[in-house]
Amino acid sequence: MTGGEGTVSGNRGLDLEEPLIFEQDVSGRTGVDLPEPGWVATDRLGGLRRKGPIGLPGLSEPQVVRHYTRLSQKNYGIDSGFYPLGSCTMKHNPRLGEKMARLPGFADIHPFQPDSTVQGALELMDTLARWLKELTGLPAVALSPAAGAHGELCGLMAIRAALEARGDARSRVLTPESAHGTNPATAALCGYAVESVPGNRDGRVDFGALRERLGPDVAAVMLTNPNTCGLFETDIVRIAEAVHEAGALFYLDGANFNALVGRVRIADLGVDAMHINLHKTFATPHGGGGPGAGPVVLSEALAPFAPVPYVVHGPDGFSLVEHARGSGSGPLPLGRLKGFHGQFGVLVRALAYMMSMGGDGLALASGDAVLNANYLLARLKDELSLSFPGPCMHEVLFDDRFLKDTGVSTLDFAKALIDEGYHPMTMYFPLVVHGALLMEPTESESRETLDRFVDVVTSLAARAKTKDAEFFRQAPRLTPRRRLDETLAARRPVLRWTRGSDETTAKGTS
Amino acid sequence: MAGLWFTDEHEWVRVEGDTGVVGISDYAQKQLGDMVFVELPAVGRKVSKGGEAAVVESVKAASEVYAPVSGEVVEVNGALAGNPAAVNEDPYGDGWMFRLRLSDSGELAGLMDRAGYEEYVKGLG
Amino acid sequence: MRYLPLTEADRSGMLDVIGAPSVDALFRDVPAGARPGTPFDLPPSAGEMEVERHLSALAQRNLSAGCAPCFLGAGAYRHHVPAAADHLIQRGEFLTAYTPYQPEISQGTLQYLFEFQTQVTMITGMEVANASMYDGATACAEAVAMACRITRKRRVLLSGSLHPHYRDVSRTLMRFSGVQVEALAPDPVGIEDLIGRMDDGIACVVVQTPGFFGHLNDYTALAAVCHEAGALLVVAVTEPVSLGLLMPPGEMGADIVVCEGQSIAGPVGFGGPGVGLFATRERFVRQMPGRLVGQTVDADGRRGWVLTLSTREQHIRREKATSNICTNAGLVALAFTIHLSLLGEAGFARLAELNHARASALADRMGRIGGVRVVPGTFFNEFALTLPRAAAKVVEELAARGILGGVPASRFYPSYPELEDVLLVAATETNTPEEMETFAAALEEIL
User: Fold this and answer.
1) What are phi and psi of C444, to 5 degrees?
2) Which CATH number, 3.30.1370.10, 3.40.50.300, 3.40.50.1370, 3.90.1150.10, labels domain A362-481?
3) What distance in Å separates the CA atoms of residue C45 and residue A357, rounded to the nearest whole number?
4) Which pTM was predicted?
5) Chain C closest CA to A406's CA: distance in Å?
6) ipTM value of the model?
7) Rg of chain C's alpha carbons, rounded to an integer?
8) Which of A170, A167, A143 is nearest to A154 (CA)?
9) pLDDT digits (tens, 9 = 90+) for A386-414
10) Of C12, C91, C66, which Cα lies nearest the Cα of C435?
11) In this complex, which chains have at least 3 CB pairs below 8 Å with chain B?
12) How far is the alpha carbon of B62 from chain C, nearest alpha carbon, in Å?
């Protein structure tokens, strides 16, 4: 079967082929009307004027609008359907956030206006900070990190700075083997050797193994809770105590905060630092990969090491502190992690969500997220193979034992779900089980959606057991593109379009 | 495949005079899948037995290749840059990675011969 | 609760299926001590109307640049954002998609990122570009780290022309790496001697064009000296509209170009989110941070796109990854791409010309004010002025008159008294001749 079977154009109804923007170039077209620059006696470019053309294509506005509209139709978003991508918290993105972020008083203010002209923006940052501190019980928050991994970097750097300030930088960081890849990558950036801690049979960190690895050279333990198996780390308080006894600090990866928000006070778990992915827990859009925001809450001990900038309140209202406090004998703060003042537009969206939900709504949401995951667990545990017994938290982990001897892999199974109109669950992560299928339904899904999904998964699992492996291997069949050759892409990287490059495989026209 | 010595990390070395040619085993290439890139050491670099010497990459994984014995890199298989698939297609021939001038041929004694390695792989299930 | 579909009836029915008495019972693994007896001290849920009222009131307490003549730059530039660009990025299939890990249902994201990568290589004059970073400053820091990986050297040299935020973020990222970051003093007149400071121990030199104080330099000779010494030349660009008019850094011999894309992508937005552009030479691609989209074919032989060369990244390489970066700025990259597609070759060149013309006119006018001096001899759309008194004070007085009249250098360099009188002023296509006259007249009065 080929793409445009039965059609002259290569299109299939609403599935429209669309060439690259560069392949639609007609010299002389433009999609923007600008005034004449006017006459300049002599330019001030110092002879550095560009000599050749850039090569950008010329298109009119209707062509550009159609191009990107067609591209959007080749995408699957939360707006399109159920997106149970474990570890990613694909919840509904309220459009109120989009509207608020576009208010001229937020979108059209410059980062270097005098503080006196941006009091509303500074108050918004201060209010958001207050919400995050209240929800976690930790006394300080750095708002500027741009994403989860950036927040991890902020938290771990603060830990290292604090340890160095007491003359004891230490050399190792412990992470569980089920950790997100960003944890070890971040620890390495902070100059630490990374050691992995095995899990136990219940899918949690093996406390004994962790304690054995603790020592005077361990700077921090980084833990995700609920962990990447979707389970609450039941030993967390003991872990925190052991970490502190060893003189180390306790970093919590807050990627899965959606299970706990409004119900569990992070400070009570003995945590020193935790980042919060606003684009997960607080419903700001993922945007095809970003932008996000990753504020970090910090304990009393780490607060003096927070990066600039931050908002303070004085007699003249709010102001921004943009320079780290002087050297001298005091603690040496981190300095700056991000240009300007952080992901302000994301902060606006997150606060709009928080205010909409309120303290009561946030607790209801985390409850529903956990309820939905446990409902999937209950309804699928006999159809798939559950990795660890429940209750789970906001996501549920299955593995590929149910596919044993069927010739169908986790990947094939997931690709068949695409033909059924679903975004697949997270596959092959975490690494602690074989052929992982990690489902996170979030609180945004209705019971009807979950029931239909369960029916589809159940019948696909039954089909797999008939050993119809070819059916699965050929999936997906109904998508704008079928399985793509990733080996070819990596062996002969083509990372940009060049004039005269092979266009023969582009069958569509506009 | 005579004259090949194997490590338990699935590298092989074939001794030629005072040098040894190094690659990864057929078992290893099958485990890793389609190779897309091989990062080779610089000629002149000294590597010690068990130390990281090269990296092989498939689409979804990257694995270190450890030096089976100590020595100085005297030649690398530049053809792998254009054709990393050679590691899959001919792991003991065109898929070789680098040649070492051995600094201690006594180290070979700790390696497995072919029969021993096959037995070892069988044990891995 | 408008965002939550479950009803009480749903919840109790589902609990029956699960076999749990209550939702609270599902939290039994959480220690009781961490489940507060008293509720959190937070306001209750609110309707859309109430939230909108509250946030709109906050927004109104800011002086938005649309309501005041605005001449602020210093790394964030206010340009006109075409209506089509902002509309298209709000399509839910773009807005609410995750990272394109399932290429069969993500060709939209993947294709626009491939177009973005191509556009970035075109305007910078480089060979490969990634699918975006957080912002220009973090991209700059990543470039420094990458140069150290490639050269295996432990010292880097930052020009005084580099944006101080880029300098500070680079310093922070390298703080625990054992790399020595040498930052030169701010250089408002463009006379620093980087070539004279080169030696074999330097991993990279980082410069900016146009420089932080506005001037333009040809870095061709510096690039040659860097390469001679085995170092890389990193060029930062905070105003990419300049690339419509100026020789691209790639032509000067840059090895890595980093750029803040906000000025093309969208509104100033109080400084975020922006989008980091990151471009380099093909031979360095495997040392590059961030995601990359590559072209390939599908099972039916049709052209398509996938994320590729992922073994550099943290989710595979963990502690050996080229960076810990995961999230990028995909949606802002989309806005960047759409605007550049609307502009096209002719529009981009004209936009740049227009910016230079407006800034030239403003510089001429400012130069006629008594006691005011235009510092750089060359510039694009931003330049430094020296005033007869402290610039920060003057800016406050202008703001009181409803004019956003530039950024005082002292905001970035509080410990350099000699920069107290320096004001950075930018003009773009959004500034009308009338606005410029209003600004100049107010400045004349204040001084």
Assistant:
1) -60, -45
2) 3.90.1150.10
3) 5
4) 0.95
5) 22
6) 0.97
7) 25
8) A143
9) 999 989 999 999 999 999 999 999 999 99
10) C66
11) A, C
12) 6
